[in-house]
Design brief:
The complex is a heterodimer of chains A (325) and B (320). Chain A has 325 residues and is an alpha+beta fold. Chain A folds into 2 domains: 110 residues, no CATH class; 120 residues, Chitinase A, domain 3, CATH 3.10.50.40. In chain A, 48% of the residues lie in helices and 14% in strands. Chain A is built from 11 helices and 6 strands. Chain A has a 6-stranded antiparallel sheet, sandwiched between helices. Chain A is elongated and about 80 Å long. About 8% of the residues of chain A have low confidence. Chain B is mainly α and 320 residues long. Chain B has one domain. In chain B, helix 3 crosses helix 5, helix 6 crosses helix 8 and helix 9 packs across helix 10. The longest helix of chain B is centred in the first third of the chain and has 27 residues. Chain B starts with a helix and ends with a helix. Classes of the chains: A alpha+beta (325), B mainly alpha (320).
Amino acid sequence: MKWLNLSLFFFLIWPFNIFSEENIPAAYLIADQIKKGLENQGDQYISSLISGIEAKEKGVLLSQDELRAYPLYIEKQREFLAQKNLREAKNWMKRLQLKKNVHFIIPLKLAYSLIKKGDGVLLTREYGKVFVNYTIKKVGDHFPETLAKEQELDLTEVIPGLAHGMLSMREGEIRTIYIHPELGYQTNNFDPNIALEATVELLQVLPCRIEIPSLCESPHFESPEITQDELDQLQSTYYYVLGWKLWDHLRWGHKLFTKEDLISFLKKDLPQISCPEYHEEINKIHWKIYHQRIEEENNTVDELSREKSLNYSTHTPKLKNWLAT
Amino acid sequence: MKYCIGLIKNTVFFFLFFYTGFIQAEEILPEWQKSLQSLSSEDKLCLESFFRTMFINSEGGFVLAGSKPVCMEGILSPDKINARQIGTKPHRRSVDLYEGYRVWKKHFESIPSEKLIICCKDHSDQLYSDWIHLMWINPQKLIEVVHNNLSVFQYVLGPQVTPTDFLNYLIDPSQDVPHDYTLTGIFLGFGSQNALYYRRLELIQKQMCSRESPPFNFKNEGLNIPNIGYLGFDLAESFDTEPSFSYSTLSEEYQNLVETRISSVEAFPFSLVKIPLFAVYKRDKETLDILSRYQIDQKMIENLLSKPDFLEQILKCIFE
């Protein structure tokens, strides 16, 4: 009976032992960390990553183009988004053309619809300082990007779409202005080529003579169309390079796991580890890898720093001269 | 009988002599040495690597030596590591610091030191969400520097703040690192005047990098600083600043700040340990004092690094 109880006890605790911290292989933890740190975990990309690992193991070198894959991918991704937004903006403008209450100031570029009529002073190009209430949102967004109440605006300091969209408004008028990205932020530090919708209430035209500049032709850059396939291909190349670089570091962990172990865990769809306790464990694995590398390369921790210091020594001692004077 | 009594006396004497000696030896051994002795060889290596990283690749040595109040290092948040970061220099440094801090926390954190407090924030930074901050603080030097610039600290943090309050705030793991550029420059030991100038440069750069703020014109156009282009800060909050007193445009101010700054490390010849890097704008007494203290401490740190028993020497420096 006693033996039976004991066997039952061990049988019950066995699954917990199997999955206890100590039994999770290093390759599993590393594969899990890599996967969690990928923007895209699709099979195609994992395969590219694995090809990169294999290539590094075989001693294949990376080409200049491959080394530039990541910045190029980011650049193209943004261009792709810019093109997509521009297409949407064009379609939006076309749809607006069909609406009866929308009046175009510049065909397919700038339009408005009247919400409330005003009967006060007329806003002209010569008097560009106003008091307004406004709400501005990106096309397709429900929440405003920005809003203000009783704000003084110098219309020479705002995007041309808003300034020219407001011309001919009267005090007390409310209108919604539809702005094509060419008259908005184009591809600057904003969602590239996003169209804007501004609802403005003109409270007062100030008696200051400030002339709103006329619209000039904005430079038009026609970049070649980027397809989704091209973008996917670029991402695959970037994942290949990533795999190559990862193995350049992880191969020093040969005492902890093999390349085959790592690849097999990368291929498997295993449950992800989310316990914070594993962070310490993973960090320890990386620490061992880095120190194995130092040991094997007979390197020192400070070598990089020394190299840097050597570079500094070639600088002109500008501060020294400056202090002496 | 006499012989027996003599034997007992001798035994008691020897017992008392050696036992009390043993007890005394136990008492004399400082706590940090006991902790050091209890470390496994791997933990010793971790800790040594941690100190070397902080001394060579960071400015920790100057904090311990007493010329720099605080030094901060970023550790990549373990739960937010991007696969692209694995194997890079920042990752390697993070791994070293994380591991070293783990050993420090377990074995040495509870031992009081007047010269050094090592603390780590328990959360990602509000501004740089992929990083957690590791701080080395020299409490005496920090209190001195805050005391000397108390009005500036009170102007930013409120009139009731005291140097000790600020120290307690910094060492609290749950608090974020203060994000005021001037205060940061001062408590990092760059001098108050240099911090005030550099703050302006950082504010203008922040405006350049931040998101456009509708309905206003492109920031680049307003700043008129060439070759900025897309900086990848679409998600950064939009931010605007006005030109400083005596400048009519931000561009003019920016150019002047860039042209007149000089790097602190340029003054000194090649060495393994660089003096703390900051932009020197003012040739005032405070800056000259700071630079000469750094230069003196630089030699001391290099000397410490060359010791064969580096780890023991460092711990001795911290706790004695």
